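Q: Hi! Curious about what Enoyl-CoA delta isomerase 2 looks like structurally. Here's the sequence.
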Amino acid sequence: MNRTAMRASQKDFENSINQVKLLKKDPGNEVKLKLYALYKQATEGPCNMPKPGVFDLINKAKWDAWNALGSLPKEAARQNYVDLVSSLSPSLESSSQVEPGTDRKSTGFETLVVTSEDGITKIMFNRPKKKNAINTEMYHEIMRALKAASKDDSIITVLTGNGDYYSSGNDLTNFTDIPPGGVEEKAKNNAVLLREFVGCFIDFPKPLIAVVNGPAVGISVTLLGLFDAVYASDRATFHTPFSHLGQSPEGCSSYTFPKIMSPAKATEMLIFGKKLTAGEACAQGLVTEVFPDSTFQKEVWTRLKAFAKLPPNVLRISKEVIRKREREKLHAVNAEECNVLQGRWLSDECTNAVVNFLSRKSKL
Ligand SMILES: CCCCCCCCCCC/C=C/C(=O)SCCNC(=O)CCNC(=O)[C@H](O)C(C)(C)COP(=O)(O)OP(=O)(O)OC[C@H]1O[C@@H](n2cnc3c(N)ncnc32)[C@H](O)[C@@H]1OP(=O)(O)O
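A: Let's find out. The predicted structure is below.
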């Protein structure tokens, strides 16, 4: 069927908008900008916004894309949007395929492998090609996996990473997918979601253990303050480069880190971005024990299997006794951190750091 000879109806347009939300494969920034521009042109007509400042790189790229459509009629923009989405259909279809060696697994989760045996539920981050960066889908899946683990018949729950990294933290492309409501709406929604995400760790009722198989960055480090034990390979490093990214601490680390390691040591990590080796993190109290990488998996899993044979009720009860005094405080800290971060995400410092990473001008 020759779509260009047809007029896309409002229904076709709405279907295409919904299809975009279902895309499993990131179509890339160029296509996303085109989609944004065509959507705006189809719904609002020619670009009617003031040109963003030169340092507001993301909004300027969006403005440029929209403005480049000139006086293209709304109907033509609608048709072009529908055609563009239709040309992306392979990435829609790919969502149901499981390709060996990719980040996808057929476990009911796209970004995790979740298994349960020997009394242990293991939640493994599974985007090794992206160093297990946590994209929006993974945030949601981790919450789902934690909620399920809190109710299943396992005794302890373990988080770990597939591949050479534990996790490189927040996926920085999370910042590029701007909804029609704009950056303010995105920041607000993310703050709500982040608060809910961290809340799942604060409230987790069973012993929660991190098996840190390699380097850990950002939120994957800060959350460790909410775990009950942290075992690390001697290959692991612990890095919270928030200031480099124009961002402030989360995961309750503004409260847990100074308590765990002293305010001065926490400042070096959270404000100045000092990267700790596994040995240093253990000396600071963030890590429970470090193992040589060659024997890490064997030694740690032997130990965890022994833990999982302990009487289950007393483990939960003892965790509750240890944690309950802090829970309310932790929720308050979480709320405040998310609130501060919401403002940070709108700052030039944060935008420029993300754009620099995505345009490969900088890494950690
Ligand atoms: C509930 C929903 C809530 C949504 C809320 C969204 C916002 C929540 C924000 C919470 C606050 C969190 C803060 C943080 O976590 S800050 C830390 C962010 N992480 C980083 O800055 C790390 C960036 N990555 C790097 O510097 C390097 O990639 C790294 C040193 C980790 C590894 O370098 P190396 O050279 O070994 O490998 P590559 O760079 O080639 O990486 C391989 C591919 O992986 C991609 N990658 C890696 N990390 C990330 C990342 N964090 N975000 C996006 N992409 C990442 C990298 O681009 C490579 O991809 P390609 O092969 O396609 O080029």
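A: A fun detail: Residues 1-5, 91-106 have pLDDT under 50 and may be disordered.
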